Known about the structure:
By secondary structure, the protein is α+β, with helices and mostly antiparallel strands. It has helices spanning 4-12, 20-27, 31-34, 98-108, 156-159, 177-185, 193-196, 210-213, 215-221, 224-228, 283-293, 305-326, and strands spanning 17-19, 38-44, 47-48, 60-64, 70-73, 84-86, 92-96, 123-132, 135-142, 165-169, 188-192, 197-200, 203-206, 245-251, 254-259, 262-266, 297-299, 333-335, 339-342, 345-347. The protein folds into three domains: 13-96, no CATH class; 98-226, no CATH class; 242-347. It is built from twelve helices and 20 strands. The strands form six sheets. Strands 3-4-5-6 form a four-stranded antiparallel sheet, with no helix packed on it. It has a four-stranded mixed sheet with strand order 8-9-10-11. The longest helix has 22 residues, at 305-326. The N and C termini lie far apart (62 Å).
Amino acid sequence: MTTTMFWKTLDELVEAxxxxxxxxxxxxxxxxxxxxxxxxxxxxxxxxxxxxxxxDGCPRRVVRHDDGSIRAICGxxxxxxxxxxxSRDDVRxxxxxxxxxxxxxxxxxxxxxxxxxxxxxxxxNIGTHDLFAGRSVPVFLWVPGPRPCEDIQPFMRIMALPxxxxxxxxxxxxxxxxxxxxxxxxHVTTLALEDCVSLSGRNFEPxxxxxxIFEVVRAELQKPSDIATSNLAWVLPADASWSEMTFRFIAxxxxxxxxRGETRRFEPDQLGMKxxxxxxxxxxxxxxxxxxxAGGRLPLHRDDPRETSxxxxxKQSLSxxxxxxxxxxxxxxxxxxxxxxxxxxxxxxxxxxGKQGQHQRNFxxxx
Length: 367
């Protein structure tokens, strides 16, 4: 089912709010499915829209009588439209819940990194569309209403982000031409929800495969020059997780990494862990090897503050290096209160005999 009236209504209502009766009238058959995206403003309408706006007495004034009855009275003489008997629900002002709309749009397009609390701001960050680990497009939602602002200031934070971005709006008419041009030059692709989704029960679903809808930004992310400069050691799928990876040291400066049945060989320079000054592995490589020798668990050494601080810096450095190498945004190393624990499996079973027993606190080497 298409949602033409809903998106058109969002373009026409100031602050995306009006009385419940008008919402029902405008949405028609779409009301039952989409009313859950509205919330009460706590206000009651003081006037009701007329079918044919005309004279000075328009719109019809809401009058509340002592007996509890409510009437909408046309003030024109002669009357331009009939008076109405109304209920309290009819005059209850309902507004769009922008957070709920953001949530259902994010779910429809299977966005990743959706904020835990979706803000009610005019321009809302609703998540990312991920191509592969380390390569994603930030996605935003904007519901401007009938008088969209032509001030570019609200979009500066979006435009300042590197690479392609996506901005969802209700219809192709939602964005003023001046704003549209500046967004386009900043690599912001504007997509009209009217053209992208249909209704399935109370949920939205894409009218085309998600990859097709995001085709333009996906093409930008897949440019060979872009991937070449990404510094990723291994381009992994967008849903890759650290728990799916196994690190196995087979020599002091060689680690085999396995992901979903595929194994690749890496040396320090391939993971950004080799010093350009002296050609030797950085301290972060030695720390990674220390994890391997300890089976993925290194004590926090809370009895020695200096050692604890050193340990923390090494852990932070290793986490960053691994994120940069593989593009997975989650922290690859967690703490259980007593030790740092690698989320991935790591071992050093193939290192030469004698390495297994080396003292784990001697992991810091000069760069």
